[in-house]
Request: fold
Amino acid sequence: MTEVLVRALRSADPADTTAFAAIRRACLPAMLATSASVAFDAEHAHRDAHYLQLLAESGGEPVGTAQVGIAYDSPEPGQGFANVYVHPEHRGRGAGSLLVRTAEEHLAGKGATAVYSWVLDAPRNLAFAARRGYRASRSAHFLRLDLAAGGLPPRQPLPAGVELRTGADFAADPRPLFALDAETVADEPGDVAAEFTDYEHWLAETWQHPLVDRELTTVVLVEGRPAAFTLARTDDASRYVSGMTGTARAHRGRGLAKLAKNDSLHRARAAGRTAAFTGNDAGNGPMLAINKWFGYEICDTEVRHVRTLG
Reply:
């Protein structure tokens, strides 16, 4: 049997970052990844995240990846994550097991007490996680919309006092979007809570990320203040992802998220994007209903798993 090795990704090596992105796309097409985005993630991760990207090789060929770190923005300390993906053509050779073991050792050394991992909702993947002591938790869906086929809901007249802007309109001062994103993330369903408090890091890690498309990002203003948004992410092909869609608490229930998303999708189609993806927690009924209204269909499901360390 060909020996499998696991090592840290060399973020300055285009061969490594290109291979890492290609494996991620092969395993989960709805998750955007490019060579530039992989390198960016490594170089701009928060120091308290102890972020590590792992690459598994079999006979010198890259066959698997892992993204590993600490949820530094969680109010509960010690929450680690390890998301492992092995190329479909190279499963069953030990790469996944070695990636998991290496990731757990790294996290244990950084003080993690629990490891959360997203696992594809398929019998083989779920059994793999269970054998290693991981317990299933909540699930999340990836959804796909064929933009090339048309069929988007028509644009609706804007209510009084409401206007639409792009993310590019906030290039000089994106702080209002940081505040809106922080409020939305705090209310997002999930196993690990998050609190955005570091504006400068948000600028570096989120706003300046190479996948973020400010021109296709839509912000809804109510009486001149940001009230809802959808953050657009695009790769170097034809794909578009709603990276985050949310509404400020004071403005929920008015259909503003629909306005934001519909505007962004229309402009994405006009810009030549042919496939739109998004992701939703399985328990997030309001957003699932919105995406069904747009015509999105579930294309993949992952189940969050957790294992206690030590």
